[in-house]
Amino acid sequence: MECIYIEYQGETKTLYIKNKFEDYKISKLRMCVRLLTGVEDDKQHLLYESKVLENSHDRRVMSFQDYGIYSGAHVVLELRLNNGISPIPVKNTKMYLYMFVLFLIFFIYYFYSN
């Protein structure tokens, strides 16, 4: 599950995503906004469905129905694919690529040494 932190402006009820997700088309993602109220109990966390309003160059702008979210809230945005499969993190993809290259080098070295 990809989670990022976002800015919240209470007057406009608009969320500005700070991170860029250039690897995924934002229109194909189902967005859920979860408000963390500071209470440690998971039952106090609220979940909202939302939709994309605009795709700008440096920020993903979205809006959602406001259910009493205050401007100082700690808000986390979760991105999920429509079919329920989470996007692959870039760090793990690079690690698997490095492992594959090392295996390939080892295999070629072993093959030519015999």
UniProtKB/TrEMBL annotation:
Transmembrane segments: 95-112
The entry's keywords: Membrane, Transmembrane, Transmembrane helix
Domain Ubiquitin-like, chain residue ranges per copy: 26-84
Name of the protein described by the UniProt record: Ubiquitin-like domain-containing protein
